[in-house]
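[Q] Does anyone have a clean structure-token version of this?
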Amino acid sequence: MASSPQFSSTPIQRALQVYAKELLQLDNATGSNVSRQQILRVLLTRDAVEHRLKAIENTPTSVLAVVLDGLSKLDNKLQDLAPAMISDGKLADCRRSRQPDETAWWWWLEPNVPESPHWLDRFDWLWNFLSASSLVVSASFLTITAQAFSVVGGFDLLQTLSTLSQATGLVVIAGGTLTSRGQRLVKTTLKKLNIPPYFYSEVTLGASLLLLLVSYGVYNSLPQFSQYYYHKGLAAQRSGNLYVAVEYFKESIAFDPEATAPHNHLAEVYQNLEKFQEAEVEYQDGLLKGDIVALNGMGTLSLAAAENESSESFGELSGLLDAEVLFRIGLDQVAADNIQLKAVLHRNLGITLMKRGDVEDISEIEQQALLKEAAKHFQTSINLEKTIVSETTHPGQGMAYCYVAALNEKNGAHKDAAENWTICQRRGYPASLEQYEDILRLGANSVGLQLNTKHILESNLN
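[A] Here you go.
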């Protein structure tokens, strides 16, 4: 390095000469042959140069420019040697022993050395694209499940935990993938876990796919959530907590709108609460799907309309003829092995025909024909119930005997009537308030008051 004569033996010039010598020795020992001791000598020499440089700050500008020009050339050489110095963490080890200030840039050469891209990094664009796509799909599943959870206006503990776990994962992974701050945080975390940098995109993709699987799993489990709330609704209905049952059945429907059973039971609860328009809407959902249980329920609603023809709350329901049509269609379409539903349909059709015979302005012959057919359907219902093997009772069980007893009295068969009234008292379980009122009216209070009403608010649909 050329030097100014007046500075050839000054402290700054001697420091620069030592610095140049140490750089030359470091340059000769390339790659893994560079020792920590050599690195320390170069860096400590550079510290000395910096110290001497501060001492000549007040020298003439022309002289100072010569010194700084020489120092710049040596510093460029130091930066060229940086890859050998930082390899195997040698520079970091030297820095730990010295604890230099961050302004001493020569101790912090790592940012000046671009990392050689790993061969796996060439696929990072693909992994990042797949990560972003997975997050979009996960967000869609999360939106659907959150809407189902919030349908009744609130979240219970199960819903809250499920939604929060998905939302938290989505926010964390999306932040780490799509924002600069998030990316830095993810890199810092992965570095602490000793994961190589060239695996960062792959790890993020793995986390995104895991979140996608979790979100899809929850979405795919919505029918199970539906069953959970459906059974809670049944329990509330059995215990007479009808308003609680309404909320559970609504939740069940939100999780699986295609399921007909929650619609039918919700309609039945509405019917017991005398919310007939709401019941009609729920039964119609099942009718559109060809559900025979819903068809039977709509028939019972028509029967209730016949008893309350003056009430405007029944909408367009027209009474007994509608009920008869619905029950006959149900009997034509019900599965042969669904014994209990067949028994219910026969009993309900018998009730409809019996009421038609009582209220319609028809000839005595036509009336007797209706009552005779009603008796036939009651007997068929009784015969079907006898084939059902069950250790428990169910709503509507034995009620056909009560209606048969009433027909016996109409026909003057008082002995048969007394026998059937006795069986009615012992085996009859009214399935609805309407049936209970029928027996109170037909069999006098002495019979109706002895009926077991434990199933009166329960389901008559299964």
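[Q] Thanks! Anything notable?
[A] The radius of gyration is 44 Å.
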